[in-house]
Each structure stands twice: as C-alpha cells, then as structure tokens.
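INFO worker-7 received task bundle
INFO bundle size: 2
INFO processing item 0
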Amino acid sequence: MFMKRKVTLILAMMLLVLTASAKKGPKYVFYFIGDGMGTNQVMGIQYYLQDIEGKYGYKPLCFTQFPYTGLVVTYSANSDVTDSSAAGTALASGQKTDNNVLGLLPDRETPVVTIAEMAHKKGIRVAIGTSCSIDHATPGSFYGHTRNRNMYHQIGNQLSDSGFEFFGGAEFRQPAARNDDDQDNYVKAEKAGYTVVRGYDEYKQKAASTDKIILFDKDSKSDHALAYSIDQKEGDLKLAQVTEAAIDFMMKEPKKGFFMMMEGGRIDNACHANDPGAYIREMLDFDEAIKIAYDFYLKHKKETLIVITADHETGGLGLTAGDYKTNLKVLQYQKMSKDAFTAHLEKMGREIGDILTWEEVEKELKENFGFWDKIELTDKQTASLKSAYVETFGMGPGALEEGKYFEVSKMSDEAARVMTECAQISWAAGCHSGSYVPVFAIGAGAEQFTGQIDNKDIPMKIKKLAGY
C-alpha cells in the first residue's frame, strides 16, 4: 500500500512539473512589424516570386508558412485610418491614441507603458531595430513618449533614458542640442553608457567590450533611413544584419531572455511613393530578416515566440489593373528606386553640364527599368514617358543656371507609373489605408494569434505569454 501511494505521489508530482513546463511562456520574443505591409503587399510578393519562375500561383515567404495567422484591425483613437505613431503605440502598449501622438494617451499627457519597458523592468534584455531612423514613429513607440511624433530630438534623448541594451537602424534625425540645458543625442547616449558603432564590421569589433550599443549604418543617409534594398551597395547595413547583431548582443546573457522588435520600415516608404520595384525588394528584405529569427527559433523551439504583423497598409495596393491577370514578373527589371533614379539623372546632368537628350534618358530607362528592351511598351506608354521628359528637361536656355533642370522627379514618377501599369497592378493613393493587416506567429503561445484581432490586443497577448 505504501509503495502504491509513493508511486502515485511521484506520478502526481511529475504531472505537475509537466503541466508547469507546458504553461511556461516564451523566454525569447521576436516582434516584427512590416510598416505599411497590408495583406496585398504580402500576397503580391508571393505572386511575384512564382511569376518570375513562369508559373501561376504563389511561392510562400518564410513567415507566410508560420502555422498561425490572423487579421488585424488598425484604427486609431481618432480615425479609422491610423498613422504609424498611433499604430505603433497600440502595438507597443495595448493602448489606442490619436494620430501623430507617440507613447501617450489621447490627452497627450499620460504616458503609456510599453511591453519593451515592462520586459526591461523585469531584467529581460531588449533590442529595437529598424530600417528607418531609430527615432522614427514605430521604433520610437517602444521607448518614446511625446505629444507629436515629429519631436525627433526629444525622442532621441528618450532612447538613452530607456536603458535598452541594443538599438539598430539609421541615424538620429535631429541630434543637435536645442539650448544650454539640452543635450545632443549622441552626447547623451555616450553618457548613458552606449557605444555607437557604424556598420556591421565595426559592430563585430566592439560588441564584446560594451554593455549597451547603438548600431548605425556605415554612412549616414540624407533621407534618414537605410538605403532601399533595391539601391543597396557593398557595405550598406541591412535589416537582416541588424537582426543578426541584435541576437548576438542579446545572447551575451542568454539566461535573462530577450524581447526584440524589428521594423521593416521602408516597405511603407516604397508604398507611399507607389514604387513597385522598391516595394518588392523591401518585402524580400523583411523576409530575410525574419529568416534570421526563424533560424534562432529552430534551435530554441520551446522557448521562442515570433510574431509578425504591420502597423497599417500603405498605398491601397491593388493586385489588378482592371483585367483578370497580373504581370508582376516585369518588376525584376527595375534596378533602382524612384528616389535613386532621380538622383542618378541629376548627377548625370551635373557631370555633363548640359540638358540630357531624350536618347540619353531613353538609354537610362532601358537599363534601369527594362523599358523597350525587356518590357514591351505601348505607343501610349512611350508617349507618356516622352511627355514627362519634355516637362522635365524641355525648359529652354537658362534653365540649367537657374537650377530648374535638376527637378527631375517627374521623370522618375512617370517611370514608376508605367512600371506599375506594365505589372498590371494599381495604387489607390499615396497614403495609408484602413485595410486589414496580417499577423503570423510561430513558437510558444503562437496559437493565440488567430482570427480577427485589434492591434492593441497583440502586445497584451505577448505580455501575458511572456510574463511581463
């Protein structure tokens, strides 16, 4: 009888241990936010990948194969169409706020508490990364608290106040001190114990010798973002490298666990610009960063949660142009973003010191968009490009000296519009929309992220699962 009771007791204790183990939440949390990434942005890249292989259907990304999916509602406290700061605040804290407000309730006074701050308070290591500036709305939502999202200097100083171990992305937007009582963003970061490194190679050299680090690109960019993936050159910092560096830095103390937010911020920029080739490459870049996290998950399956979502959809992307087909494979021939093509033509003009001829512009369109060479254009499309050339370059004597010649964005805009037309897709606007965005999840507790979800509920689910 005694032995029977002893065996029963042992079995009961084992059951309790197994139950407690089963209920244990994730130790390592990855939170990916594709800024501007609606459901059509995701479906479009999958159609594209299949189309370039000459097949109908879709080729899945890494994250679209995750077992749990849902649809996310994104409205803000004062609009059905959110901006990134209101959406970022909801995704970071579980609190709705007004558009343009960052990390505060709609009263613009009461700070919210973000899951990154909750995690850090419990001794968990925190990493924040982005392909935009590190003080931009989405990353800033996880540590910043300002009445307006454009208060970049204040947000930059709040970054140092957070004490988070890792930051990565593009440089501060407004670093300089505003008055004698203020501090430069870089100076304050240094005083707070951060080591600022530029480029992935410098990160690898200095990461071991510091407790807190800020990883910027090797060269600062004028548009305060990492270079578009389509425009990147050797040595340019990539979101995948930011993610890899963040994991490396977080795992200096693996027992503490980590919370990590990584933003694919330039998806939004490309969609605002209605730039189809740039959007496609940004989606691929975002998936490459997620693959780094997925590789980590495969080694720590029981302890890791990966959640991918978006703050809102941008551009009203339509996977049709009025016919029952698309032609997305043509986007492989676009070699530059609109912004880069504008800068390229401006540079050519300055080097030549004269107005470019139509033949010179036509050659650049062939090389960088594939027009006439790899993509057959209609007479109407060719005429529209020539018309844009005349508007841009046909300014007559004196235009070069007056600086008018270098306003060449009309040429790039028309090239992107024709490319969109050739791909047989469409854009409804150059702003955000109120559409659903997706959520994908894998790992410990991932089954919580299904069905229709309000964006404010996502961080609360993560908080509960991870015990923040």
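INFO item 0 finished
INFO processing item 1
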Amino acid sequence: MNNRLKVLRAERNWSQAELAGRLDVSRQAVNAIETGKHDPSLPLAFRIARLFDMPIEEIFDDGHE
C-alpha cells in the first residue's frame, strides 16, 4: 500500500520517533509503514488520519480506484 506518511511527517519537521510518540507506536513501526513493509491496522490508520486531520484515503492508497 502506498502512503504519504513520510511526506506529511517531513512537512511538520517531525522525526520518526516524534510521530511514533504521538501515535503511541514504536519508531520501527513508523519506519515499516513509511517504507511499505507493513500496512497499519485500521485503528492505527484512523489515529494517523486524525493526527493529520485528513481522510484516510488521502494518506493511504491501496492502488485500486
């Protein structure tokens, strides 16, 4: 799944560790999501969307229209 997490994080000048703290996950989890090695759970995707005040669909793209 493609995502804009790294770009959104960089726009706010947050480190992976800072974002991880805000989401209550590990820095490794943030890295795995950013690099596409792991897809977030639905509850985590909702937390990410709320944090960035965006719909999930604007952050994550499963490649299907």
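INFO item 1 finished
INFO post-check item 1: The mean pLDDT is 95.
INFO post-check item 1: Residues 3 and 49 are 12 Å apart (CA to CA).
INFO worker-7 idle
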